[in-house]
Amino acid sequence: MGESSRVPALRHGVGILRHLARQGGPATAASIAGELGLPRSTVYHLLNELEREGLVVHLPEERRYGLGIGVFELGTAYSRHAPLARLARPLLHSLVDEVGHGAHLAVLHGREVLYLLEERAPGSPSLVTDVGVRLPAHLTASGRAMLAGLPAAQVRALFPDASAFTDRHGAGPQRLSELRAVLADVRQRGYATEDGEVTPGFASVSVAARDHTGYPVAAMAVTFDRNAVDERDWRALAAQIDPVAAELTRRIGGPDAVVPQFERRTPRP
To answer: Which Pfam families does this chain map to (predicted)?
Structure first.
């Protein structure tokens, strides 16, 4: 097989794997061919090759195909390599040098955020956002930045009733309607904030990074002494975080041409 024919085959094979990943269960070859617009003979050939490599499993009684154990092995290898943290670390370091405040990277884990990286500015105090710490997503700037990018139904599933809203210092949303208002504001501005809801006396500004589907896979945030940065300057701080989050989006396979949030919005007066 020549070089020119291998590249489309690889692209179509990846397309099949992504299609299967989006399904709720195994799919027929005919449905795969129809969804991807490929000849059925081509799909059967690619499925056979993927099955040989353990990436696809054939269920003969159901006449369907599902993801194979090889995909799980690749997924666990991805976790071991910790690529998200590796890709974000130099970006976070540069961000801290630029803004002069500590910064961190977090991911969404259910109703909590999990902190993967923390970069402290010289002389900055130790905060609760240390690596491995989990905090309520609805109270943190990082969590709000990511929650704002989720479908409304998913947010509702995460916060079905008042018991889902953990309280730390008597501040922050305590019901779904309040959280929705906060997230609507985040989407309007293009960045998220929190003010003393995690640690009294400290505030944070955050922007989310997204994968190729637009899903908010992580968020970068800067945390600072509430008295050190006037609230009128928080937008300018967000504008410094924004291109860094956009670069992380590009590095993890997001859109090829990432337009920072602040180039897509008309500033509020």
So the answer is: HTH_IclR (PF09339), IclR_C (PF01614)
Do 99 and 192 lie in a common domain?
Answer: yes
In the block, tokens 């998913």 appear at 154
Whether residue 174 lies inside any domain: the answer is: yes
Contacts of 69 (CB under 8 A, 6+ apart): 54, 57
**Which of 181, 175, 142 has its CA nearest to residue 161?**
175
Backbone angles phi, psi at 106, to 5 degrees: -135, 155
Q: At which residue do the structure tokens 């208002």 appear?
A: 181
CA atoms within 13 A on the CB side of 257: 2
pLDDT digits (tens, 9 = 90+) for 203-243: 999 999 998 888 899 999 999 999 989 999 999 999 999 99
What is the dihedral sign for C-alpha 10, 14, 20, 23?
A: negative
Q: What is the pLDDT of residues 2-54, one digit of tens each?
A: 444 567 888 999 999 989 988 878 999 999 999 999 999 999 999 999 999 98
| pTM > 0.85: yes or no | no
Instruction: Please say whether the beta carbons of 169 and 194 come within 8 A.
Output: no
User: Is residue 120 included in any domain, yes or no?
Assistant: yes
Q: Tell me, yes or no, whether 246 and 131 share the same domain.
A: yes
Same domain? 131 vs 222: yes
Domain assignment of residue 147, yes or no? yes
Task: Show the domain range for 35.
Answer: 3-74
Q: Where are the alpha helices (DSSP H) in the chain?
A: 3-22, 29-36, 40-52, 69-81, 83-99, 141-147, 152-158, 176-189, 234-251
